[in-house]
Amino acid sequence: VFPGNCWAFKGHQGQVVIRLPAQVHLTAITVQHITKDASPSGTIISAPRDIAVFVSLLGTSVDTDREEETLLGMFTYNVEKDPVQTFPLKMLLPKAFSRVKLLVKSNWGNPWYTCIYRVKVHGKMENQKASTKGQD
Question: Which residues are in the SUN domain (predicted)?
């Protein structure tokens, strides 16, 4: 994680849909930004602030052209805390998903762009339960 080596989008709002390599029972999401000390300007106003996490049901319904989403939680990334922040999801669904949507609703004051340095999705892969049978 180096200053400027981030996913940046114009303005203070943006979204990304992350396609996971497998179906996952989601439990938490981690968002990372740089620290004030690492920032050349000494500020991190480009950090995301209010974030919503959705699962995408694209392709799971009969009408595959229509995207359906379920909100799993809304969180605030706090620039005064650790740069790596993990948010347990408020709604845990019994179904596994392969698409996660991260919607950034605001940042900490930068009017031109918002930066995200790292996003981690936590959970258990759907096939992990079956693959652990017979193992110690």
Answer: 1-126
The first and second tokens of residue 26, run together, are 């989601």
| 135 within domain boundaries | no
Residue 79 within a domain: yes
Beta-carbon-side half-sphere exposure of residue 73 (alpha carbons within 13 Å): 16
Q: Give me the DSSP letters along 80-121.
A: TS-SEEEEE-S---SS-EEEEEEEE--BSS-SSEEEE-EEEE
Residue 67 pLDDT grade (very low, low, confident, very high; cuts 50, 70, 90)? low
Q: Is the dihedral of CA 110, 47, 53, 20 positive or negative?
A: positive
This prediction has a pTM of 0.82
